Amino acid sequence: MNLEKTTVITAVSAFVTALVGEWDGALITLLLFMVADWITGLTVAGVFNNSPKTETGALESRIGLKGLCRKGGMLFVVLIAYRLDLMAGLNGVLRTGAIVALVCNEALSILENVSLMGVRYPKSIDRVIRQLLGDKSDKDEK
Questions:
Q1: What single-letter DSSP state applies at residue 141?
Q2: Is the Cα torsion angle 34, 40, 45, 51 positive or negative in sign?
Q3: Angle at which helices 25-46 and 93-116 cross, to 10°
Q4: How far from 133 is each of 15, 20, 44, 107, 115, CA to CA, in Å?
């Protein structure tokens, strides 16, 4: 890698770290889950044409843009939590709590996406996911 690329990567890393805190396992996990959710969402719509977010189930650029905006909003939540931590001297408590909640949300979305691709997992997990996502379609199953 040349010096210019290394300098740009270092500068971007320093800027992000200043905004949302250190590159720790929690932040890396959140970013990985965000990417996994994005990829599985694109796969559901683009390959399987099974997205519940569009009428046809196919890929739509506007829906994709909304999803990316949500991801940006999630990082903004981490930024706010980190800045509040610094202000209150809480040593990352709020930041870590925000990241854990966001990772859980992303995990649910990933599981929903892989389910739409036909991947099977235990019904009990499916019921919990549907309840957390507000889908009452399995109400009559007991």
A1: -
A2: negative
A3: 20
A4: 34, 27, 17, 12, 14
pLDDT one-digit tens code per residue, 65-76: 999 999 999 999
**Cα torsion at 86, 90, 95, 100 (round to 10°)?**
180
Contacts of residue 88, defined as CB under 8 A and 6 or more positions apart, other chains included, come to: 94
- How far is Cα of residue 11 from the mean position of the Cα atoms in its chain? 24
Cα 109 to Cα 137: distance, rounded to the nearest angstrom: 17
- pTM surpassing 0.70? yes
Q: What is the 3-state secondary structure (H, E, C) of 8-66?
A: HHHHHHHHHHHHHCCCCHHHHHHHHHHHHHHHHHHHHHHCCCCCCCCCCCCCCHHHHHH
Terminal C-alpha separation, the chain? 58
